[in-house]
Amino acid sequence: DFEDDYSNANPALTGYGPMSSRKSGGGPGVAWLCTVSSTLRARVPRSKGYTISHAPQAPYFDLGYGKDGVHGLCGDDIDYYAVQFYNQGDNTAGVAAYTTADTLIKKEQIVPEHPSVVSPLDGSLTDIITANGIPASKVLIGKMVTAADGNNGYVPVAELAGFIAQAKTAFPGLGGVMGWQWG
Question: What are the start-end ranges of the H helices in 27-124?
């Protein structure tokens, strides 16, 4: 679970310096994540039943986790991504990100901290799988189990089941679902 964003306080995926000079995958966090993943893979091989997963927030694929970043450089060492489809966006107009089937599957608009420099981020399944080149089999939909398990993005289980059915139709090889704070 690696936390990052497009701010000066946390530039790991995009790099340091003025916002206008940063680029997706241009920060030191990409190399660090790949070093950690590759070192772990060498010490905990698949052949002995070990699994390595990452739990990035959904928009991070647009910031440096996709084909031009972490996944492109060391995705073979990562077995799956338990993507966090919660705690995203700012609840503009009372609507949290990834709380409809369309925003989870087709397209979302996350306005970053510096919207004049950074285009809105997506992180929908279509963005992650199609635009960022992540195999559907490596993607798990991560959602909060209860509304108290995060800041936003909760979807009641009965409604979420319908979203997941639609996601499996759109991406038949989808890896699965992960619940945050089960217990």
Answer: 28-43, 60, 70-74, 101-105
